[in-house]
Design a protein that fits this description.
There is one protein chain. The protein is of the alpha+beta class. The chain folds into two domains: 246 residues, Bira Bifunctional Protein, Domain 2 (BirA Bifunctional Protein, domain 2), CATH 3.30.930; 92 residues, Anticodon-binding domain (Rossmann fold, 3-Layer(aba) Sandwich). It contains 15 helices and 16 strands. The radius of gyration is 29 Å and the shape is elongated. Bound molecules: histidyl-adenosine monophosphate (HAM). Histidyl-adenosine monophosphate binds next to strand 6, strand 10, strand 11 and helix 11.
Length: 423
């Protein structure tokens, strides 16, 4: 059995090796293109924040704050936490940088790692990457629909299939307290039949009981009062309009009265996107009209969402998503002798500046080994620079298919190759 290495990566975290990078790059390219189109500006925030930002922003009773924070004390005795999500930090940055004074709605997007001390399992990590979009200063329901559309479009552009959008409204401070009371009364009268977790949720945040996946809680949930029947007029109208916009832009969705989300800052619309074959959400978000004020800013409506990049990659793999063809390297540069090697280094630079891809194997001295490599990468042409050629300022172009060779001046080879590649 292979010996365990002395050091291993932290549990629930992983290395992104070169062969995995293309997934991140592909997602980044599509997300940044869409962000550009909808005029979102990119924001980066520190990986750590004051811990209070998260307890206040996400909610003291949430799993994230209670159990999943990576917290640390600095030498200066500041209490910081690795960000478990981006919304609270982005709101902090919005307030701190006076972005309210910029033309509104202000639109921001991000792409980077988050940290949650969760029990690692398939598609659940302790370090995972999110990309997200947040819009500040607009209460119109068209924004809610646009955020859903953006995430749906990104997943579609990634060629993912069988997407399911689930939406719900969880009301606001007008109607939710009354609904929560109603719900608490209902579940309290059936408390004995609830699972242990739900008994706790009933005391901490009764809405989370609706989120329970335990078999025994399902029939009780099914009979519970539904929030959509208890929204105030404003929330009702807002949600109706969101759904009308979604119909208009032909985004298929399911109404899910049990969708409540695991973070406390939401008001009105909430949504999640899944793949039919998986239980874990690919993306989730909604409106959070109170958060800016809660975190010390002026009352500012806001709406946004984030997606989990590892989950998207895992689906891209299982659905065998195809990538656009990468440009092939058609030229191999072989060298023989020390003068030729030196000249080759310079020539390679000239090719790079001319934006022509060239492969090489400068570490090898044997021509045979280099030609083997040229065969392996299926190079169409091999350029051969030997000692004699280097002295005379010439180079051999060998057509690998026909075996035909041509000798050209070293300072003309880029021009020549440009012409050949165009053919
Ligand atoms: P969230 O639902 O906690 O929302 O996370 C968003 C997405 O991040 C999830 O749908 C999932 O794909 C991914 N994710 C979460 N936890 C993990 C994990 N442990 N391992 C792998 N992937 C994970 C938020 O974070 C909100 N800030 C979204 C938001 C933005 N709401 C408004 N604006």
């Amino acid at each position: 059995m292979a010996k365990k290495p002395k050091f291993q990566r932290p549990r629930g975290m992983h290395d992104v090796l070169p062969e995995e990078q293309k997934y991140y790059q592909r997602i980044y390219d599509i997300v940044s293109n869409i962000a550009d189109f909808y005029e979102f500006g990119k924001i980066d925030t520190p990986i750590v924040e004051e811990i209070g930002l998260f307890s206040k922003g996400i909610g003291l009773a949430t799993d994230i704050v209670k159990k999943q924070m990576y917290s640390l004390k600095t030498r200066g005795a500041d209490s910081l936490a690795l960000r478990p999500e981006w919304t609270a930090p982005v709101v902090r940055a919005y307030i701190e940088n006076g972005m309210r004074n910029l033309p509104q709605p202000l639109k921001l997007w991000y792409f980077g790692p988050c940290y949650r001390y969760e029990r690692p399992q398939s598609d659940r990590y302790r370090q995972f990457w999110q990309f997200g979009f947040e819009v500040f200063g607009e209460q119109n329901p068209v924004i809610d629909a646009q955020i859903i559309q953006i995430f749906y479009n990104i997943l579609q552009e990634l060629k993912l299939k069988n997407l399911i959008v689930e939406v719900n409204s969880i009301g606001d401070s007008n109607c939710r307290p009354y609904y929560k009371k109603l719900l608490a009364n209902y579940f309290r009268s059936r408390e004995v039949s609830l699972c242990v977790d739900c008994k706790r949720r009933l005391r901490e945040n009764v809405l989370r009981v609706l989120d329970c996946k335990e078999e025994k809680c399902q029939p009780i949930k099914a009979e519970a009062p539904q929030i959509l029947d208890h929204l105030c007029d404003e929330c009702h109208e807002h949600f109706k309009e969101v759904l009308e916009f979604l119909d208009e832009i032909e985004i298929p969705y399911n109404l899910n009265p049990y969708l409540v989300r695991g973070l406390d800052y939401y008001t009105k619309t909430v949504f999640e996107i899944f793949a039919a074959e998986g239980n874990n959400a690919l993306a989730g978000g909604g409106r959070y009209d109170k958060l800016v004020k809660v975190l010390g800013g002026r009352e500012t409506p806001a709406c946004g969402a984030a997606a989990g990049i590892e989950r998207i990659i895992s689906l891209m793999k299982s659905q065998e998503v195809k990538f656009p063809k990468e440009p092939e390297t058609q030229i191999f540069l072989a060298q023989l002798g020390s003068l030729a090697k030196r000249k080759s280094l310079k020539l390679l630079e000239d090719f790079r500046k001319a934006k022509i891809r060239v492969a090489e194997s400068f570490g090898r001295d044997s021509l045979k080994a280099q030609l083997n490599r040229a065969d392996k990468i299926k190079a169409k042409y091999t350029l051969i620079l030997g000692q004699k050629e280097a002295l005379e300022g010439i180079i051999i172009i060998r057509d690998m298919q026909s075996g035909k060779q041509e000798i050209v001046a070293l300072d003309k080879v880029i021009q020549k190759m440009k012409k050949r590649l165009k053919k």
